[in-house]
Amino acid sequence: MQQLSIQAVIFDFDGVIADTLPDIAAAVNAALNQFGYTSLSQEQILTFVGDGARRLLERALTAAQQASPESVKSSSGDSSPSASPRPEQESRIQDLSSGSRNRLYPQNPDSGSQAFDAFYDWYVEYYRTHCCKETRLYPGITGLLELLAIQEIPTAIVSNKPYAVTQEILNKIHLTDFFTAVIGPEQTARTKPAPDGLLLALELINRQRYAKGKPPVKPQQVLMVGDSSTDIQAGKSAGTATCAVTGGYGNHEQLVSSHADFSIYLASELQVLFLNR
Predict the structure, then answer these.
(1) How far apart are the first and last CA of the chain?
(2) Contact at 8 Å (CB) between 245 and 15?
């Protein structure tokens, strides 16, 4: 890749900009516990990350039900005393989902039931207000962003993470001003691996450049930096160059098989690419 060809950089967030897994896992378990389910290990929750919060919670609910025979029996309609949820669990479920445990976890979590939406909304709000307990920037990220800013290379974030949570974290770790655009799943019809978020980010970057009298950046002049195959697929679909971050959260085999243009261990290693421009 020619150094001078990159005129904008788009980053994934989790596993690329910041190590957010401890707080994600804590929020998932808080939601599970609030609705009467058992906690999961951080290692298990890691395998659920990468396709957005709804898929994360669907997978977590499935795993929690499999780990809790009591919950499985209750949701399948068994009314025996040993299958009944504890009174305090039942109360929380009714308060938050306005329905039974069967409604809380329908057979198809994609069905968009009000109960699942209540579970999802509770998780997002809890995570938003507890998002920086253990979250840390990866080494060198601030230096990379400062270098890109000095060189007037615009940056954006495109994440499948809820927008409100990403924005809250950026505010708390004082990175908001580095990014021209922050795109979450609420702002596009399709999430990664679809290219919609990347194309929207590029549109917002070019609006800012137009206002400053600068020529637009073309997709092939953009570098997509991500730690999962969905990031690389999204970049390829949008027509951008792609960089795989192997030290993040994504499945390594899938990441390798996505055939990014090049790979690095941490995103901060990109500084080498831009130092001599």
Answers:
(1) 13
(2) yes
Buried residues in 44-54 as b, exposed as e (16+ CB within 10 A): bbeebbbbbbb
Which tens digits make up the pLDDT trace of 146-174? 999 999 999 999 999 999 999 999 999 99
Neighbouring residues of 9: CB distance < 8 A, sequence distance ≥ 6: 148, 153, 154, 155, 156, 222, 223, 225, 270
Measured between alpha carbons, how far is residue 46 from residues 96, 108, 143, 225 in Å?
A: 26, 22, 27, 19
Q: What is the pTM of this model?
A: 0.84
The answer to whether residue 87 scores a pLDDT higher than 60 is no
Measuring CA to CA, which residue among 24, 22, 28 is closest to residue 60?
28
